[in-house]
Amino acid sequence: MKSKSEIMDTICQLEHHIADDFESQDLEFKQWNDRCMEENVMKMIRYAVCMANGGGGSVVFGVADRIQGIDNVLKGVPFDVDIYELQKRIHENTVPHLTPSFDEIFYKNDSIRLLVMHVIPEYPSYMMPNGTATIRRGKECLPYNLFKDDQ
After folding, report:
1. Nearest to 55 by CA among 135, 139, 116
2. Element holding 118 (H helix, E strand)
3. Which CATH number fits domain 4-150: 3.30.950.30, 3.40.50.300, 3.40.190.10, 1.10.10.10?
4. Where is the Schlafen AlbA-2 domain (predicted)?
5. Which residues contact 6 (CB under 8 A, 6 or more apart)?
6. Quick one: which H or E segment has residue 60?
7. SS3 (DSSP) at 46
8. CA-closest candidate to residue 73, choices 26, 121, 14, 117
9. d(C-alpha 46, C-alpha 128), whole Å
10. Are strands 101-107 and 57-61 parallel, antiparallel or unpaired?
11. I need a labelling partner for 115 at 20 to 30 A (CA). Which of 7, 79, 109, 135 fits?
12. What angle do CA 44, 84, 117 make, to 5 degrees?
């Protein structure tokens, strides 16, 4: 899992790199969908499960992928998105229950807000209520059952 200062340092490098250049086993960048809050919540749940099964990590929401330049990359997350509501929804939709922590990072005179979801697993495997699970391998979330034998 990355610290807030490590993530901030990485974000500064997006002037000349794309976010994908820095994604790894314990770090992912995702753009926020301003049109559909439920899609964002489901994405958070999927990544919480994936990261937890992969040993933990951080997902930065509000960063565009495959684009260079800070002014173009930092899309942000709306200020009215409630972190406690996100934690509650993730907790309710993971088995066993998982409650990530969140950091906020502000840019451009506090006009852009990024959310960093930190996932620290406590149990050996997590899934969504429908029984699906993924695991982080490198830069990808892969179906969990592909790796059951080596867990």
Report:
1. 135
2. strand 112-119
3. 3.30.950.30
4. 23-143
5. none
6. strand 57-61
7. helix
8. 14
9. 8
10. unpaired
11. 135
12. 40
Report pLDDT digits (tens) over 13-40.
Answer: 999 999 999 999 999 999 999 999 999 9
Largest CA distance in the chain: 49
Rounded to whole angstroms, how far apart are CA atoms 101 and 117? 6
Residue 17 CA to residue 135 CA, distance in Å, equals 26
Sign of the C-alpha dihedral, residues 25, 26, 29, 32? positive
User: Taking a C-beta distance cutoff of 8 angstroms, is the pair 46, 128 a contact?
Assistant: yes
Q: Among candidates 57, 68, 62, 3, which has minimal Cα distance to 26?
A: 57
Angle at which helix 37-53 crosses helix 83-92, to 10 degrees, equals 60
CB atoms within 10 A of CB 98: 21
**pTM (2 decimals)?**
0.93
Percent of the chain with pLDDT over 90: 88
User: What single-letter amino acid sits at 4?
Assistant: K
